[in-house]
């Protein structure tokens, strides 16, 4: 993940325990997309029981990724959650691997992240055109220096951030919206021999 000034740098490998779990990772994505949600909202969107959504939200809070947002609650019984790091996190994998249990935590997280990425690509290629969704697959080749690649990554993240802020702030369109997963890979092309 490219680092921007708005992302929180994370070096503690324990954070991977939270985001290696597919449901918690999805809930964190929904929180980030919406800006804030109640456990009942998470349950409805993901089709899981509310107590399961509450459990995962508490686990995300335990690892410092989600927090209660009482200022957004309707009353004293209403529990609203928001992401701690509004603009995401920057996983410092090399630093994480050096910590106690870091190599194992990174390996588990990488396997889960790779499986999720493969599943996302498979869904994109096998999806049918639908009236209420749009799927785009983009495969571009660009010649860049390392500094230019970092600059391009920062620009792409800035575009994503603007859209996230724009749509999270517009509660009026929430009933018409669904969460989209934008996955971008910016990496050197493989050597022809590999």
TrEMBL record:
CDD domains: HTH_ARSR. Pfam families: HTH_20. Residues 14-97 form the HTH arsR-type domain. SMART domains: HTH_ARSR. It comes from Nocardioides pocheonensis. This is ArsR family transcriptional regulator. Signal peptide: none annotated. One of its GO terms (molecular function) is DNA-binding transcription factor activity.
């Amino acid at each position: 993940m490219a680092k921007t000034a708005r992302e929180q740098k994370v070096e503690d490998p324990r954070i991977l325990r939270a985001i290696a779990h597919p449901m918690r990772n999805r809930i964190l994505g929904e929180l980030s997309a919406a800006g804030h949600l109640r456990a009942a909202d998470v349950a409805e969107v993901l089709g899981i029981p509310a107590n399961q959504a509450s459990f995962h939200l508490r686990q995300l809070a335990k690892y410092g990724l989600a927090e209660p947002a009482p200022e957004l609650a309707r009353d004293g019984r209403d529990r609203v959650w928001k992401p701690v790091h509004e603009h995401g996190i920057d996983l410092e994998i090399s630093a994480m691997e050096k910590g106690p249990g870091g190599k194992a935590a990174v390996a588990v997280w990488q396997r889960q992240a790779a499986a999720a990425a493969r599943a996302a690509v498979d869904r994109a290629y096998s999806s049918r055109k639908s009236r209420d969704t749009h799927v785009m697959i983009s495969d571009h080749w660009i010649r860049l220096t390392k500094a230019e690649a970092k600059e391009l990554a920062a620009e792409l993240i800035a575009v994503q951030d603007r859209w996230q802020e724009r749509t999270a702030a517009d509660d009026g369109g929430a009933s018409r919206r669904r969460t989209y997963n934008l996955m971008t890979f910016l990496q050197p092309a493989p050597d022809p021999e590999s």
